[in-house]
Specification:
By secondary structure, the protein is mainly α. It folds into two domains: about 100 residues, no CATH class; about 350 residues, Orthogonal Bundle (ADP-ribosylglycohydrolase fold). Helix content is about 60%, strand content about 5%. It is built from 20 helices and five strands. Strands 1, 2, 3, 4 and 5 form a five-stranded antiparallel sheet that branches. A hairpin with a 2-residue loop joins β4 and β5. The longest helix has about 30 residues. It is globular. The N terminus is likely disordered.
Length: about 500
């Protein structure tokens, strides 16, 4: 029974539901309610179902409080308030042959399939966005039309290539877009999480170094190369030291932490936010120790984690998303800056005259509030670039990625009306120019976690290097998440 309830509670669509199940001759009816008195609510609906047998012919069908599910509204009361509580949603499963045993396996398979699509969707969308975005990185003139023309050409080339392959010709490597350091480092994190089933910073650092040594031409930044070479030293006692010594001890405030963190945000699905925060900070500090880099990476990690947990059966409530994001970010941002100030104060008292960063207020929270304002009005790309940014610095790129996701979710981007929200997110992020591959890959990771793999065009997937590995990583991460939830 505890396993069954664990499966119910781990549905990504419902946050902290009270739940119970009602048995009849034909089915198991699982209901979610905000009532604290689930026992009385359960007896009420159970008697209703057993006496009237409304769901006798329904099998493996999710019933939500919208659309054509009027039978649920009328007969069970989804969306209605009863004395015993408000019923949020319902799931119906056909009973097994044993009338006393709910079909737990079938129910959990539905959940696992949904989760797999969204974990894979995040990783695959991120890879695709990195590959396509790399073609435009720091180009002087980028706009929606140029990006649209590029993806249309990519889709046409894929169609042509399929015809050639069907005729017996081999596919050329040049027909596949290459990924950058963004994906290379994200892959290292995913592989380490899968092997250790937890964060192992020494192993992640070693994988970063090994990946760089194997393929140094992926576009790594000059400062991080110094760190990666230091991390290759197996005798290094403190894996955080090389990054901590960067820029006269202030550390890098680039966006390298955010560009690679999506696998961790997915891995921490259903874990406490404190664990997500601690794991994100430790992975970030391997290469970036400045507070701006750490808070920015947390913003991306929180956004991916949140997107995966929300109900994607209905349009995204962008205002609610930002509200929940701010609830997570505000205390974290303040805490990290306070810790930095305390550390600098101790260094100054001990005779260290290193320069103070001059951090004032909560700049990331301010930018999230700015995103809220942008979504309420028609904002041109110039204003987005000026106020949110598209640079390599974390503060001037990671909030932009969040905005691109939300802008794509609203599907209000001119010229892309016939495309889905993940496509719109990627196209729009790249069209802003600047650090196109990184902004796009971060935005796509959030979007893919919400909309799932089916929202990433097949032609794009087939045209980009690293997609097959992303699919495999997604499958293995989902297995870990699912096994962890059943065990708990």
């Amino acid at each position: 029974m505890s396993t069954f309830l664990s499966c119910v509670r781990s549905l990504p669509q419902i946050s902290h539901p009270q739940c119970f199940f009602a048995l009849s001759h034909q089915i198991t009816l699982i209901l979610f309610t905000d009532s604290e008195n689930t026992e009385s609510c359960g007896r009420f609906v159970c008697s209703l179902v057993i006496s009237q047998r409304h769901f006798r012919k329904i099998s493996l069908k999710r019933l939500w409080s919208k659309g054509d599910n009027s039978i649920v509204k009328q007969k069970v009361g989804v969306g209605s308030s009863w004395k015993c509580g408000h019923i949020i949603s319902a799931v119906v499963l056909r009973r097994s042959r044993n009338p006393n045993t709910p079909d737990i396996h079938s129910f959990f398979q539905i959940y696992k399939t949904m989760l797999l699509s969204r974990v894979r969707g995040s990783l695959v969308a991120a890879v695709v966005a990195d590959c396509i975005g790399a073609k435009f990185e720091f180009s002087r003139f980028v706009n929606i039309d140029k990006v649209l023309n590029a993806v249309k050409k990519l889709e046409q080339n894929r169609t042509t290539m399929k015809k050639k392959v069907a005729e017996g010709k081999k596919e050329k490597q040049g027909d596949v877009l290459s990924f950058t350091d963004d994906t290379a480092m994200a892959r290292s994190i995913a592989a380490s999480l899968i092997e250790h089933k937890d964060v192992n910073v020494r192993d992640i650092g070693a994988r970063f170094a090994k990946e760089f040594e194997k393929e140094p031409s992926r576009g790594y930044g000059g400062s991080v190369i110094t760190v990666l070479r230091a991390l290759a030293d197996q005798d290094l006692e403190d894996v955080f030291q090389p990054a901590r010594e960067q820029f006269d001890g202030s550390g890098s405030y680039g966006n390298g932490g955010g560009m690679r963190i999506a696998p961790l945000g997915l891995f921490c699905h259903q874990l406490p936010l404190q664990e997500l925060k601690e794991k994100t900070v430790s992975v970030t500090k391997l290469t970036h120790t400045h507070p701006y880099a750490i808070v920015g990476t947390l913003l991306e990690s929180y956004a991916v984690h949140l997107a995966l947990s929300l109900d994607n059966s209905k349009p995204l409530d962008t205002d609610n998303f930002l509200g929940q994001l701010l609830e997570r970010l505000r205390p974290t941002e303040k805490e990290i800056y306070d810790q930095r100030r305390q550390m600098k104060s101790k260094e100054k008292n001990s005779g260290d005259e290193s320069e103070e960063e001059g951090i004032e207020g909560l700049p990331y929270c301010n930018k999230v509030e700015l995103i809220r304002d942008f979504l309420k009005r028609d904002v041109d790309s110039k204003e987005v670039r000026k106020k949110l940014g598209t640079k390599v610095t974390a503060l001037d790129s990671i909030p932009t990625a969040v905005y691109c996701f939300l802008r794509g979710a609203s599907q209000s981007i001119p010229g892309t009306e016939e495309r889905g929200p993940v496509e719109q997110t990627i196209i729009y992020a790249i069209s802003l120019g600047g650090d196109t591959d990184t902004v796009a890959t971060m935005a796509a990771a959030i979007s893919g976690a919400f909309y799932g793999l089916e929202s990433v065009p097949q032609a794009w997937q087939e045209s980009c290097e690293g997609v097959r590995d992303a699919l495999l990583f997604g499958e293995k991460l989902t297995e870990i998440i699912s096994a962890r939830e059943v065990k708990s």
